[in-house]
Amino acid sequence: MIGTIINSITVLIGGTLGTLLGSRFPARMQETIFATLGLFTLAIGMSSALVTKNPLIVLGSLLVGALIGESLRLDKRLEQFGDWLRKLFIKDGSDSDSARFVEGFVTASLIFCVGPLTIQGAIEDGLMGDYTKLAIKAMLDGFAALAFATTLGPGVIASVIVILLFQGGLSLLAGMGNDIFTEPMITELTATGGVLLLAIGLRLLELKEIRAANLLPAIFIAPTAVAIMDLLGIPYYLPF
Q1: Cα distance between residue 153 and residue 159, in whole Å
Q2: Cα(85)–Cα(93) distance, integer angstroms
Q3: Residue 84 to residues 81, 103, 105: CA-CA distances in angstroms?
Q4: DSSP string spanning 63-122?
Q5: So where are the chain's domains?
Q6: What is the pLDDT of residues 9-53, one digit of tens each?
Q7: Which of 40, 37, 180, 77 lies closest to 122 in space, CA to CA?
């Protein structure tokens, strides 16, 4: 959990600084920063998605995950949670302020929690107490939080709660046993998370409004699918 705590602190600091400095940045500069973050998210998402050894697992996980997510309306639930946090911390505000807070919370939560460093780092922290990857992620997330908060405001700070729950929970789960996450499971989980990052990148660039939150179940389905294939003796690697 040490890595998650460090990560939460850097996002808290970066988000706070970005919120305080946001008004000092002209709209043109904020727009360029936002576009840059979108491009970077696409690049990271693409590199992560390409690590898969069996694209059918990723595709199947995304399709099933989308069905589950849409049925549960996870995007709306995440937005409602973000709006509840906004009302908890910010008593007064216009509808535009509320929408901006929720957008910042949802966007930052997804980006900070579905990347490859999140998954691998949290598992290594839980298994071996090695939080090197999470320390690197913490530095990256701190600067990203600063940049996001200049445009999206305090909602980015609220994403710390999701980091603690998701990333910390992943570390605790990994710490329960060395055999819970195998290398193939981590690989396909990372690849599936990469596709989610692509969806977020397209949204940041305002190219396509994809409900990325409704794809979240896919990152749990992918490792489960690998585990089932291993249990049934089905070859995991897909020959190309």
Answers
A1: 12
A2: 13
A3: 5, 13, 11
A4: HHHHHHHHHHTHHHHHHHHHHHHHHHH-----HHHHHHHHHHHHHHHHHHHHSHHHHHHH
A5: 2-232
A6: 999 999 999 888 877 777 787 788 778 888 888 888 898 899 999
A7: 180
pLDDT digits (tens, 9 = 90+) for 157-194: 988 998 899 888 888 877 776 667 788 888 898 899 88
Q: What whole-number distance in Å separates Cα of residue 191 and Cα of residue 169?
A: 20
33, 205 contact by CB (below 8 A) = no
Output phi, psi for 158, to 5 deg.
-65, -20
Q: How would you class 26 by CB atoms within 10 Å of its CB: exposed for 0-12, middle for 13-18, buried for 19 or more?
A: exposed
Provide the 3-class DSSP secondary structure of residue 207. Answer: coil
Residue 199 contacts residue 190 (beta carbons within 8 Å)? no
193-222 as b/e: b if 16+ CB within 10 A: bbbbbbbbbbbbbeeeebbbbbbbbbbebb
Distance separating alpha carbons of residues 47 and 123, to the nearest angstrom: 20
Report helix, strand and coil shares of the chain as percent, to nearest 5. Answer: 80, 0, 20
The set of residues, in sequence order, having a beta carbon less than 8 Å from that of 129 and lying 6+ positions away, is 2
**CA nearest 38: which of 208, 213, 202?**
202
Cα 57-63-68 angle, rounded to 5 deg: 120
